[in-house]
Every structure is written in structure tokens, then in C-alpha cells.
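Recall that a protein's primary structure is simply its ordered list of amino acids. Everything else, from secondary elements to tertiary packing, is in principle encoded there. The following example makes that idea concrete.
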Amino acid sequence: MDSYVEQIVVHEKNAKDVLIRIVSVLSIFFVLGMGMLLGVLVNFYFVMVGFFLTAFAIYFCWYMFTGRNIEYEYCITNNNLEIDMIMNQRRRKEILDTDINKIEGFDKWSENRLDEDKCHRVFYLGHNESDHEQYRFTVLTEKYGRVMVVFSPNEKTLNAIKMYLKPEVKIALRKNQQ
């Protein structure tokens, strides 16, 4: 029997998002100020160029603001797990596509059984990066090497993943839940 489960998780704003917004707004004032300054010091035509470049800076600012609206889509088809990042519902980027049977370790982040130091890369693909009630797993990929993925599955997604885990990973997971 084929199984298909899909879940979308909205990523919460963090300090990095606030910093990007502040820098974007400051870039508008910087471009406008430089246009005015060069217009007064060199030639009045620089004021017009400054206004023209300010219009581009405003568009850039809007693009950066909306581009930080990030969602993660977990899609499980039979024993294949695919995680995509969706930016403002206009762009999609595949983060991870792996066979669930290749998962080497699976636990709740608060249990701290998996070693992050043995991984080449850690992906935070959940609500936020500080919530220790999320789940995580390690897997060996061709593209990144050994990675750890921290994510926020709901019960339906979690049960679909558990169904296809290797027996030794299932046993370790059950031991820690008791």
C-alpha cells in the first residue's frame, strides 16, 4: 500500500530576520543620502540618479522583506522523505531528499542522544532554532556528507517516518520513549 503524507511548517522570525530588515531599510536612506550629497557637491544630475537608485533600493527592500517569509514542506512518499524550503510562496528550494531507511539515528532534540560533532552540517528546518521539543535525525547524503536535520513533524508525519525506519533505530527510539 502506498503512503503519502505532506506537512507545511511556518518558520518563525528570529534575530537574523530583524537584522536583514534593518539593513534593508538603512540601505534606502544610504542611497538617497549619497545621491543628495553628490548632487550638492558634484552635479545636480546626481540627485536624479539618487532618486532612481532609491526606487531600486525600495524594491530591493520589499523583496528582502517578503523573501524572509519561509515555510518548510515535509513530504513523505512511501519510504522517501523530501524537505523543501518555500520562500514567500514564490520560490522553492529542495533541501533534502533521502530514503528513510538510510536514517542512522532518530530522537527528540531534548533527549540529546545524537552527537552533532560527528555531522558535517546541521539543518534547522522547523518552527525555530531554539525549540528543544523538535525531533532530529542523522543521515549520510551524497551532497553534504553526514547531516543532522532538526525538524518539527506533527503526529501523522512522525508516524509515517517511524513506519519506514530501520529496526535498530526503531528499537533505540522506543527505549528512550519509555
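The chain has two domains: 4-10+73-177, 15-67. Helices lie at 15-41, 45-67, 155-164, 167-177.
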